[in-house]
Amino acid sequence: MAEHIALQYPIAGDAALEPPAEWAELRGTCPVAHVQFASGDDAVLLTRYEDVRATLADPRFTRTAADGGGARVSAESGGVLDSQMASVLPQHGEAHLVWRRTLNKWFTAKRMAALRPGVTAKAERLVDEMTAAGDSADLKAAFGFPLPVWVICEILGVPEADRDRFSYWSDTLLSMTRYTRAEIVAAQTEFHAYMAGHLAAKRAEPGDDLLSELATGSDMSDAEIIATGQGLLVAGHETTANMIGKMAVMLLADRTRWEALLADPRLVRTAVEESLRLDVNAGFGMVRYIDEPFEVGGAVIEPGTTVVCSMAAANRDEAAFADAAAMDLARTPNPHLAFGAGAHSCLGQALARTELQVALEVLLRRLPTLELTVAPDDLQRVEGLLVGGMAAVPVRWRT
Predict the structure, then answer these.
(1) Is residue 105 part of a domain?
(2) Domain that includes residue 183, residue range
(3) CA quadruple 180, 186, 189, 194: dihedral positive or negative?
(4) pLDDT digits over 168-177, tens only?
(5) Among 114, 225, 322, 372, which is most buried by a count of CB atoms within 10 Å?
């Protein structure tokens, strides 16, 4: 295995829309690379498409180390990878499959089709509020964040009015370097108490929502239901909120892309997939563990090694995608790995796709003159969290 001991992970690019140069170098010369996390612990990084896909799909790999060890992502423990929430939920095997099956029916294509008109109406209202306030806004704060928060709150049956609290709790769980151990523990304690209160209320007076169904019609323990609610709330808004902003930036950075979508809105679905594939700020990637030797990329990974799969680097692999660095709005097929692969692929990917498609459709229809107010290279990225994105997406439009 080639040595890259000094390589710090995650690897940041020089600009918001450009991949780190190291990705291509590693795919070409060191696809199984030694890296070091912010905690100071060592791990192995995979960057080639076939290696990442094979590892994510291999049932022998787990999301947590069997012995409770493994490399720490952050020196401040308590984040999502070693939280109470993660310890309560089944992470692999039959128990994990049962847990997913219990939730799957809430994220089927049929449910997404039924949800779509409501998502569209909410997106329209958000644009109404933006345009009523003037001719410019932070698209992430005014549109990208509140849209998926409203959706996941509707599904779970919790009040959207608490969205700022959700955002803070989510950020602490996803922290690598932003929060202290004490801040993370305090936030988790508040978050747990909040979900426990809602669980008790749902059990006393059920509604037509996921928490009510789990509370009254599942075999999950209270701890599992609370952790499920926490996990869905974090995953259901944080990543999608960031992706709406990143997608807009990618499409507006080169005006010909936005104009192509205005000319042919039928490209929205493939444009969403291509935006997911080309996302260079996808975040940390997926951490995996295995307790037996595993051969990948021409190297043998020893038992007990922490492996991190960079889906973002894999999605730019020329061996998997023709002209991989180019944004092809009509690319098909597009088997990107943005949602992972295998038994741990994103449970809510149908929901995320619905939200991204609706967001883009509404923005194109309502704000065809939308444009960035800063150069793409001047955009500031989210720092210190496991998820990536833009700190803000300043835009304007002509009325």
Answers:
(1) yes
(2) 21-396
(3) negative
(4) 999 998 888 8
(5) 225
